[in-house]
Amino acid sequence: MIVARTKDHDHEETDRERNSLFPILRQTENVLERKDFFDHMKSLESDFLAQLLDSYTLTLLLIDIDRMSTINGSYGHTIGDSLLDQVIVRLRSTEGCVSFAKMGGDQYAMLLHVPVDQFVISHIDRMMMKIKEPFFIEEHELYITVSIGWRSLTRRSVFHEILEQAEIAMYYAKKRGGDNWQIYDPDMSPHDGMEIEKRLHRALYHHEFLLYYQPQFQTASGELTGFEILLRWNNPDLGLVLPSVFIPMAERTGMIVTIGQWVLEEACRQRQVWYELGYTQFRIAVNLSARQFQQPNLAQMIEDTLRRTRLDPTLLELEITETIAMANVEQTFRTLTALAKIGVRLSIDDFGTGYSSLSYLCKFPLHRLKIDQSFLRDIPRAKEGMEVTRAIISLAHNLQLTVIAEGVETIEQLNFLYENHCDEMQGYFLSRPLTLQATEQFIAKLSNDESIS
Q1: Could you read off the pLDDT of 102-123 as tens digits, one per residue?
Q2: E-assigned strands of 202-306?
Q3: How far apart are CA 147 and CA 66, in angstroms?
């Protein structure tokens, strides 16, 4: 006879197993101090670790809270400290967390204890999704993300080496813009970041930055409507450095403000050159980073740039991500209102990936929403992505906003956007980002085929 095991019976057996086999791991009742956590991890460097690894995967995670300096600067340290208290509660509730410690600053360490027949990644992904849910502190609704580096223990693990490897992986996650995890890879170098940072300081003065231009098109007619401005770094020694590597570093060090000003000035100057050649209609779209958007003199800086370059404000569109917009809605409203008075167009980038409140969205003086490419990636196979895309298009139109989709890479995606009345689109299926020379050839060819002026 087969007797069905109940869930309660399973839990009882699990508890007995942990009580007998894993007394060292039961540390989650308190948030450990750094030294106690070190002692706890050192205690695993024994035959006990080999016994554990027969049935379980032990993984060390180093977790860094993204943008805490921004939150402290916007709301004050009292709100920031309350937020961290709530973050700790969520992190400690992660399934499989058996030890948790504050490592200093906004960084934490966690030891995950996962059965070998389960995927560590799925536990980490669920934890990151839980962290992205809103935090309510006093009258504020706050959102954060985390950067995680991790390394699983082996029978020969030495704690200080595992900790160093997880830390290197965490910094790689930060370099990629945060809100992601990285598993340690031996090819990761702890010195890469410092070397790139030194070169980044010199890049602007050595004229190593380039602008690329990705065309945007009207979905219904195929008419060129604008170009998104994309920054590239061509270093003589490193070659073409990916934005995912240097943009987070520039943001973290504050260099992004100076670099961003150069991008804006150069983009407006070039657009005015094209205007004087007779191409008067299409716009340029420039992304603003979080640090740029927080500058108290941002509107004045934009206005001064337009005056110097003599560019019509209506030909400039400024994009901020949904995450930036919702970081401090009061400040966002004030800044967007000041920018709207200048006459520039305003857009929310990566829409659908954050937690925008419709009440705030209605109040912001916006012109356009950009659908994040993640929703298009698996169309037509991904029904959920199709439904989200339809909903965003409908929402934008109901709010009298235009909507553009990025990341269009297939004819199926293009047809889907056409059938669902998405106003504009961009992506590799239509055109890759172009150098200045290629962009001018592109414009000249279009002007010969049809009027774009």
Answers
A1: 776 688 888 888 876 567 888 8
A2: 209-218, 224-235, 239-241, 283-287
A3: 7
Q: Other CB atoms closer than 10 Å to residue 103's CB: what's the count?
A: 18
CA angle (450 as vertex; 444, 452 as ends), nearest 5: 65
Q: What is the CATH number of the domain that holds 399?
A: 3.20.20.450
Q: Is 8 helix (H, G, I), strand (E, B) or coil?
A: helix
Q: Are residues 158 and 207 in the same domain?
A: no
List of the chain residues with pLDDT < 70: 1-55, 104-105, 116-118, 155-157, 189-195, 238-239, 242, 244, 353-357, 449-453
CATH number of the CATH domain containing 98? 3.30.70.270
Cis peptide before 433 (omega within 30 of 0): no
Q: How many domains does the chain have?
A: 2
CB 138 within 8 A of CB 47: no
**Does residue 261 sit in the same domain as residue 180?**
no
* pLDDT tens, position by position, 284-295: 999 999 889 989
Cα gap 428→431, rounded to integer Å: 5
How many CB atoms neighbour CB 142 within 10 A? Answer: 21
Between the CA of residue 370 and those of 228, 347, 396, what are the distances in Å?
Answer: 12, 7, 10
Which tokens belong to 351? 């829409």
